[in-house]
Structures are given as structure tokens and as C-alpha cells.
Design brief:
This protein is an alpha/beta fold. The protein has helices spanning 18-27, 31-39, 48-58, 63-75, 90-101, 110-118; strands at 11-16, 41-47, 79-81, 104-106, 123-127, 131-135. The longest helix has 13 residues, at 63-75. Residues 14-129 form the VapC9 PIN-like domain.
């Protein structure tokens, strides 16, 4: 089996939700470095609907709007998935993407985290506002 550029034989697919993309600005964490330390080699996917949600949040004022704008710059370094054709909540699209790509999801959204874990989808969460932790696998 071929290794990736970090010497990792297996790559993990990761799906980021909206608040995961806002974590770097809100908590000063290096999301990509944290994922590399936790998972080794990985590929990052972002549903298009997450990007749309960030764009909406970025139009406002305050810390959340600034974090959303920064999240858009983070998303620019990821593979953005094409939008789904049906009109379902963004969380459902994150779950569908995780199921479709057998992926781990990065989120700190409690409701989404609980839904993912009930579906036996692993989740990466931010602990102590400083480090990423994998749960559910």
C-alpha cells in the first residue's frame, strides 16, 4: 500500500460542518495540524451547503461573522462537494456526506454529534478549547 506524503499508509476522509470551519478563528486552533496529529493522513470534504451557511453568517457583524469569514478561507483549502438537490437541513447533508464517503465528521454541535454517534459515525470534537479528540470509533 502506498504511503501519503506524511508517510501514512491510510488516509481518512473528514467532513467539516459549519462550526468546525469557525473553530480556528474562535479558539485559535490549527484545524489541519490538529487533524494530522490525530488522524495521520486525511482528505477534507465540505458540503456546499456548509459554505452557503458560512456566507450567510459572514454577512453579519461581530465575532461570529468574523469567524464565518475566516471559515470561508479555511473552506477554500478543502474539497467542496456539489450541492444536494433536495431541500433538507445542513446537518442532514453533513450526515449524508459522512455516510457516502465513510467519513469522520468534525463538529462541536451537540445535537449533530449525538445524531452522528447514534448512527455509529465517528466524530472529532474540540476538547478544552485547545485540542481535537476522536470519539465513537
Amino acid at each position: 500500500m502506498a504511503s501519503d506524503r506524511h508517510g501514512c499508509p491510510d488516509r481518512v476522509t473528514v467532513v467539516l460542518d459549519t462550526n468546525a470551519l469557525m473553530m480556528p478563528a474562535q479558539f485559535g486552533v490549527d484545524l489541519f495540524e490538529g487533524l494530522r496529529e490525530l488522524l495521520g493522513g486525511y482528505d477534507v470534504l465540505v458540503p456546499a451547503e456548509v459554505v452557503y451557511e458560512l456566507r450567510g453568517l459572514a454577512q453579519g457583524r461581530g465575532n461570529n461573522a468574523a469567524a464565518a469569514r475566516f471559515g470561508l478561507t479555511v473552506a477554500a483549502h478543502c474539497t467542496v462537494l456539489p450541492p444536494y438537490e433536495d431541500d433538507v437541513p445542513v446537518d442532514d447533508k453533513v450526515i449524508r456526506s459522512a455516510e457516502m464517503f465513510n467519513a469522520v465528521v468534525v463538529t462541536n454541535d451537540k445535537k449533530l454529534k449525538d445524531r452522528l454517534l447514534s448512527l455509529r459515525i465517528p466524530v472529532v470534537v474540540l476538547r478544552s478549547r485547545s485540542r481535537l479528540e476522536l470519539i465513537g470509533k
